[in-house]
Design a protein that fits this description.
Layout lengths: L6 H34 L4 H12 L2 H18 L3
């Protein structure tokens, strides 16, 4: 290790990583509960997530992807 890396620095980063893991676990639990709520309400959580992701994308990028997907569907005989 270089002289600039101290035990305290390593410990601080280990503590931060542990905190991230705890947060990720909590988010996973909350997401599981949310998915169950969606299903209980008759909704499809996977499609809701997909729609939320689409909503976050730039419209021009979304339009381009939809155009390409439509072309792929035509070639595959889906539409």
């Amino acid at each position: 290790m270089s002289d600039t890396v101290t035990d305290e620095l390593i410990r601080a980063h280990l503590d931060q990583a542990a905190g991230f893991l705890d947060e990720a676990e909590e988010i996973g639990k909350r997401k599981k509960e949310w998915r169950a709520e969606c299903k209980g309400a008759g909704l499809d959580p996977a499609l809701i997530e997909k729609t939320a992701k689409l909503r976050r994308e730039d419209k021009s990028k979304r339009d381009e992807q939809e155009f390409i997907m439509d072309a792929y569907k035509r070639v595959a005989g889906i539409e």
